[in-house]
Amino acid sequence: MSYQRRESKRDRSEPEIVQALEAAGVRVWRDLPVDLLVYRSAWGPGWYRCLEVKTPGEPKHSAKRCKAQDEFIRDTGAIIVKTPSEALDFVTGVKP
User: Fold this and answer.
1) C-alpha–C-alpha distance, residues 45 and 71, integer Å
2) pTM, rounded to two decimals
3) Which pLDDT score is estimated for 62?
4) Domain coverage including residue 54
5) What pLDDT was estimated at residue 1?
6) What percentage of residues in the chain have a pLDDT greater than 70?
7) How far apart are alpha carbons 96 and 92 in whole angstroms?
8) Which CATH number covers residue 67?
9) Mean pLDDT throughout 71-81?
10) pLDDT given at position 2
11) Please, are residues 35 and 71 in contact by the beta-carbon 8 Å criterion?
């Protein structure tokens, strides 16, 4: 399945999550089919994780976009995070 990210506003919680991850030494890429692609040197070469950022209490996007995004998350195993602590707990607890 091809997934192309549409230009849209970013989730409000994303900047704080990115800042926390980077402060912990995690490399973060943005503007991909998923909100964040992250890498930690402790995982070793070639191990990356997809994180989808959601803001607690915010409504879901359009039904069409949600379906495509839900398929991407299902197909890639992307993890949904809503807070900096959830993101940090995930990346520090993951073993390749």
Assistant:
1) 27
2) 0.61
3) 57
4) 14-93
5) 35
6) 78
7) 11
8) 3.40.1350
9) 85
10) 34
11) no
Q: Which pLDDT score is estimated for 83? A: 93
Sheet holding 79-81, edge to edge: 27-30, 36-39, 49-53, 79-81
Residue 11 corresponds to which tokens in the numbers above? Answer: 């989730």
Residues whose CB falls within 8 Å of the CB of residue 65, separated by 6 or more in sequence, listed in order: 6
Judging by DSSP bridges, how do beta strands 79-81 and 49-53 pair with one another? parallel
Residue with tokens 């995982």: 43
- How many residues comprise the chain? 96
Average pLDDT, the chain: 80
Residue 4 lies in a domain: no
DSSP string, 25-94: T-EEEESSSSSEEEE-GGG-TT--EEEEE--TTPPP--HHHHHHHHHHHHHHTPEEE-SHHHHHHHHHH-
Which tokens go with 4? Answer: 């192309």
Does residue 6 belong to any structural domain of this protein?
A: no
Domain count, the chain: 1
